[in-house]
Design a protein that fits this description.
Length: about 210
Amino acid sequence: MKKVIISKHAYLSILAEVYERVETETGGILLGHREGETWYVLESVEPGPKSIFTPTYFEYDDAYVTYRANKLSRLYKCSIELLGLWHRHPDLMKTFSSTDDGTNKTYSEMLDGAISGIVTLGNGFEITMYYVPRNVRYEKIEWIVDDEQIPKEYLSYYDVEYYKKLIDEEAQKTFSFVRRELESKKDSDKKHEKRKSGNQLRNRKS
């Protein structure tokens, strides 16, 4: 049975985004892991500052979303992946528009099947989650917010010392490169000055 398990952190991110844009449509992309017919959603990435928000239409800031997704993935020991998306619809509309169909088809083809959620507020905050196959024949699926059902390794972050070590290693490489470049420039300047002095001496003799 297909199901989506959402972390508390990702769910809070969705709620916060909807609250911030309560007068318009909004949305986000869902990141995490897929195991067969189970999707573990660990992150919901906000749509970005250059997104288009209206009461009946919404468009992502693709460059920002990609940037944020890559940054977030670096925090996890098990790199998270794109799973799908969600967006808010006005009133009680829990079905996709023709524009949504095109977006969902793109994600489904890219991911060989995606999840796509619709948020509505008419009867309070609700999410209707769908599985989107390549043929875009939507299948409504269950979802739950529960960190306990998510494998612990998926929730595991790198610790501080891991990145401090990487930074030190990269810094040493950078410093070594800069030193070599400075030494090379000094040698080049000395040779240039030597040639310049030789030319001046020959000019005096002539």
